[in-house]
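Hello,

Our lab assistant flagged a job as stuck in the queue for most of the afternoon. It eventually completed. Since we weren't sure the result was trustworthy after the delay, we are filing this so someone can double-check. Below is the sequence as submitted and the structure that was eventually returned. Let us know if re-running is recommended.
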Amino acid sequence: MITTNVETVPGRTIVEHYGIVQGSTIRAKHIGRDLAAGLKNLVGGELRGYTELLQEARDEAYNRMVEQAEELGGNAIVNVRFATSSVASGASEILCYGTAVRIQ
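-- returned structure --
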């Protein structure tokens, strides 16, 4: 599956549009990560636990989007974007979306 954040795939022709595809996941903070983050806030630096949590969430949302595009018959997704929203205290949704297409 070819994915791109622009509206075309350079050097390829879009022959069919399948519409918007999306994948999402909702993740909550983990008490262990919260404790480590609290300590890290005292001394500064990257909050690796949260970095890993968000990377896992982005990967899961992306993979779900790709699966949906494959089910529709697409072989590429254009205009790929990520969005994040808070859905509850300590929980966030990661959304990945784009347009499924068939390219030559």
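-- support follow-up --
The delay was a queue issue, not a problem with the job. The result is valid. Residues 2-103 form a domain with the Translation Initiation Factor IF3 fold (CATH 3.30.110.70). The chain has a mean pLDDT of 87.
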